[in-house]
Automatic annotation (TrEMBL):
Protein name: Putative streptogramin lyase, gluconolactonase family protein
Organism this protein belongs to: Aurantiacibacter atlanticus
InterPro entries noted in UniProt: Cyt_c-like_dom_sf, Vgb, WD40/YVTN_repeat-like_dom_sf
An example Gene Ontology molecular-function term: heme binding
Domain of life: Bacteria
Keyword tags: Lyase, Signal
Signal peptide: 1-30
Lineage of origin: Bacteria, Pseudomonadati, Pseudomonadota, Alphaproteobacteria, Sphingomonadales
Pfam family, one: Vgb_lyase
Gene3D superfamilies to which the protein is assigned, alphabetical: Cytochrome c-like domain, YVTN repeat-like/Quinoprotein amine dehydrogenase
């Protein structure tokens, strides 16, 4: 399948969203009364619910202007643009209703940011390829993107309509593999030919491939959250095998491969972790404390310890597969901080708090059991959300994103400040 290439910001698409919103407004929870409310409801709900506006920490008019500019191009209707900004600034000024708790510490870090060309795509899940380029997916607009961080040049490639890619990873073959979350496929994109090969799910009940990772044998493992399954794709044969989670509605989410080949999967719908035998595909459950525990993502350190975010209770967790011991630490911003993404990086555990504003990047030092945290920028504002993070191939940087403002980011530790 040959695909189209986008190399410039897609303003036409954004204006089409604006026009369709006026003609076919989506239903949503009513916002507070005020001049411009109906316009905000119709335009904004073309892409997301008004609950995201109400759950924000609020902004000045200048910051609302920047935030709106990362989502939709309203330059074709200046009066509407001004009315929307007036309403947002008057109704949702800066507030501390979801304030985060920053923890100071000895480390200094550096954020680099790139805003992707096409607005409203919800860019996410950046991953590095062997040539140092960074790939991402634009979930809402069926986009696969590539960034050259040395020059800032970006390309966007159109995926099959309705794929709604949830994540992307780079295979041993150098191809970009993405999960078609809405069309029940896993896709392979060849960067040299721009050809796409789709691998459909063999079971109609397997409808939503979610997060994917390659193991050491070149097999692609992926979760299917709503389908309550874990899948394995053999790139050589195209064969797809599926296994069900032993608990109903456990909602398999994040996936990581341990050094021994075991496949570990987070449960976003229950208090559990899942371990998949890579040979038999038997799935076993590790039940975690507290029924309200929910795990978005996890990672495995060099000692085989499983680190996970307790999104439901605002904690960082650790599971030792050898002893069965579970240890948890309260996240700095409290039980409603909703930790989300996580990665082992720089001899520590890094994750974000997505339920607060700013969205905080948190570092946990296992040796001392101490935290340090930083607000994650989204251009000149703090919006969000970071949903997945991974390290660069050399382990020297952390790749992040802010899907709410269509930014891709890279984090490095400044060693000059810590080792004078």
């Amino acid at each position: 399948m040959q695909i189209g290439v986008l190399t410039m910001p897609n303003k036409t698409h954004s204006f089409v969203i604006f026009l369709s919103a006026l003609l076919f407004p989506a239903s949503a929870l009513a916002l507070p009364q005020g001049t411009g409310r109906d316009l905000v409801e119709s335009v904004c709900t073309a892409c997301h619910g008004t609950n995201l506006i109400e759950r924000s920490s609020g902004y000045s008019r200048e910051d609302w202007q920047f935030l709106v500019s990362t989502m939709v191009d309203l330059s074709g209707n200046e009066p509407a643009h001004e009315a929307i900004l007036d309403y947002l600034a008057a109704t949702f000024p800066p507030s501390g209703n979801r304030a985060s708790t920053q923890v100071q510490g000895p480390l200094s870090i550096r954020f680099e940011e790139w805003q992707v060309p096409t607005l409203g795509q919800r860019s996410r899940d950046p991953v590095e390829a062997p040539d140092d380029t960074i790939w991402w997916v634009g979930q809402w607009l069926d986009i696969l993107g590539r960034l050259d961080p040395r020059t800032g040049a970006m390309e966007e490639f159109l995926l099959p309509a309705g794929a709604r890619p949830h994540s992307v990873t780079i295979g041993p073959d150098g191809m970009a593999w993405y999960t078609g979350n809405r069309n029940a496929t896993v896709g392979r994109f060849d960067p040299s030919t721009q050809e796409i090969t789709e691998f459909p799910m063999p079971d109609a009940a397997a409808r939503d491939p979610h997060t994917a990772e390659f193991d050491g044998n070149g097999m692609l493992w992926f979760s299917l959250q709503g389908s309550n399954m874990i899948g394995r794709l053999d790139p050589a044969s195209g064969d797809v095998r599926l296994a069900r989670s032993p608990r109903e509605n456990s909602r398999p989410y994040g996936v990581k491969i341990a050094a021994d080949g075991a496949v570990w999967v987070a449960c976003n719908g229950a208090n559990c972790l899942l371990r998949v035998n890579p040979q038999t595909m038997d799935v076993s459950e590790i039940t975690l404390p507290d029924e309200d525990t929910r795990v978005r993502r996890l990672d495995v350190d060099e000692n085989g310890l499983i680190w996970w975010v307790n999104s439901g209770l605002g904690r960082l967790g650790r599971y030792d597969p050898r002893t069965g011991e579970v240890t948890q630490w309260p996240s700095p911003s409290g039980p409603d901080s909703h930790p989300y993404a996580i990665a082992v990086f720089d001899n520590a555990i890094w994750y974000n708090e997505s339920g607060v504003r700013p969205d905080m990047l948190v570092r946990f030092e296992p040796a001392t059991e101490t935290f340090q945290s930083w607000p994650i920028p989204s251009g000149p504002v703090h919006a969000g959300i970071l949903r997945h993070m991974r390290t660069t191939l050399d382990g020297q940087a952390l790749l992040i994103h802010q899907s709410g403002t269509n930014h891709i980011g890279r984090v490095t530790v400044d060693r000059e400040d810590t080792n004078p």
